[in-house]
Design brief:
Shape: globular
Structural class: alpha+beta
Low-confidence stretches: none
Number of strands: 5
Strand content: 25-35%
Distance between the termini: 27 Å
Mean pLDDT: 93
CATH architecture: 2-Layer Sandwich
Number of helices: 2
Number of domains: 1
Radius of gyration: 12 Å
Oligomer: single chain
């Protein structure tokens, strides 16, 4: 499955502390093989899914027909669900 990052998610990823950057990048790569890992939850107020990595959240959508996973946002849990 192809993985895409929105420009917002790319900027958020680059602003992370170096240690969290590595951990989150690894988790994003794993989403390509298993888009719904244990602990992933469907978002209620909008389209997509989320996974937790410590205090951070990765929000993403999956399009099986196209074989694409799009990372919408990578943010601290305080700010992750604000639109």
């Amino acid at each position: 499955m192809k993985i895409f990052l929105t420009s917002k998610a790319d900027k958020q990823l680059k602003k992370l502390p170096p240690k969290m950057y590595e951990v989150i990048l690894e988790k994003i790569e794993l989403l390509g093989t298993n888009p719904f890992p244990t602990g992933s939850k469907k978002l209620i107020d909008r389209e997509g899914w989320r996974i937790r990595i410590g205090d951070y959240r990765i929000l993403y959508t999956v399009e099986y027909k196209k074989g694409e996973l799009t990372v919408l946002s990578i943010a601290h849990r305080k700010e992750a669900y604000r639109f």
